[in-house]
Write a structure and sequence with these properties.
By secondary structure, the protein is an alpha+beta fold. Helices cover 66% and strands 9% of the residues. The chain contains 13 helices and 4 strands. It has a 4-stranded antiparallel sheet. Helix 8 packs across helix 11.
């Protein structure tokens, strides 16, 4: 903001009028020197104030009085700009993930659309359709945000991302169940290779999910290549959810439960390695890494439960 110094010399008898004008304009003069009959003032003003103040002072000054306005000698930075600090890399990443974790109508639409395409691919045993559904599935954002929020103990982000991820999973499962019920009323559904392959957690899918979580965190940290990684995340999560909905709709309770276990195991593996990626990037101290232990415990518990229930397999 450009500043000026307005110098005023006036007779002491006119001082109340001069000071009254300045007070009305909200400016506060400094008295440089005063005597019985003369008063010398200096007033810091900005450009807009200076023009108005000169106009208002002219009628109250006498013929022997004078005013002088200097040219701007310096610029004061805006208070907000002076106090603003550059965000840290972690704060920038948090801002990106906060946007990605929001539950919006567009997120819901893409989830249902991708689940519909995945349903067609699984029922028709068409791997190309299954892959096509992954391209538009928006599941990567909330999961990567959830891993970050858990590691940083960011309650709001964790809650928001968790709700969005749960809503996405629920929408995908419900859409598949409704489609399967409607389809089965016309033509019986015979599970093929694509559906059966998603009927239980296995070592192959676990390894894929672990790698995908780390790559997903890296892609968000670097801010590039998220589309391809988003497809990998969707491959690990959406087909099992859709398969669970289809199996449930046609009355295959065992495979429906196994597919749901597969989705949960893959989600836990993704979250764990995503959090590891964030921890390595930002060099967190050991004391801040207890969420990693919690995520690893959840993953181990899910693997144990699925094995006890007879769903765990080594090969896909």
């Amino acid at each position: 903001m450009a500043r000026h110094l307005l110098y005023v010399q006036t007779e002491a008898s006119r001082m109340p009028s001069v000071l009254g004008v300045m007070e009305d304009q909200g400016v506060h003069p400094l008295v440089l020197r005063s005597s019985e009959d003369q008063l010398y003032l200096v007033v810091p003003v900005d450009t807009a104030e200076a023009d108005q103040l000169l106009t208002l002072l002219k009628p109250v000054l006498g013929p022997e009085d004078w005013m002088a306005l200097d040219t701007p000698a310096w610029t004061f930075p805006e208070p907000e700009a002076a106090e603003r600090e550059e965000p840290t890399p972690a704060e920038e990443l948090e801002s990106d993930l906060d946007q990605a974790a929001r539950l919006t109508p567009w997120f819901a639409f893409l989830t249902v659309a991708s689940a519909t395409i995945a349903f067609a691919g699984l029922v028709r045993d068409d791997p190309l359709l299954v892959l096509a559904s992954m391209i538009i599935a928006p599941l990567m954002g909330p999961l990567m945000a959830l891993g970050f929020g858990l590691l940083w103990r960011h309650r709001r982000l964790t809650l928001q991302a968790g709700l969005t991820a749960a809503a996405g999973a629920g929408l995908a499962w419900a859409a598949a169940w409704l489609l399967a019920r409607a389809f089965a009323a016309v033509v019986p559904i015979e599970p093929g290779t694509q559906l059966v392959a998603r009927s239980a957690p296995n070592l192959f899918d676990l390894a894929l999910a672990l790698v995908t979580g780390a790559v997903g965190a890296y892609s968000y940290i670097r801010g590039q290549g998220q589309t391809l990684v988003g497809v990998m995340v969707a491959i690990a999560l959406l087909p099992p959810l859709v398969a669970s909905g289809v199996f449930s709709a046609i009355g295959w309770a065992g495979p429906a439960t196994g597919a749901l276990y597969l989705a949960l195991v893959n989600a836990a593996a993704l979250l764990f390695t995503a959090a590891v990626g964030y921890a390595v990037r930002f060099r967190l101290t050991v004391r801040r890494l207890w969420p990693l232990a919690l995520l690893l415990a959840v993953l181990a518990l899910l693997l144990w439960w699925s094995q006890q229930a007879g769903f765990w397999t080594v090969h896909p």
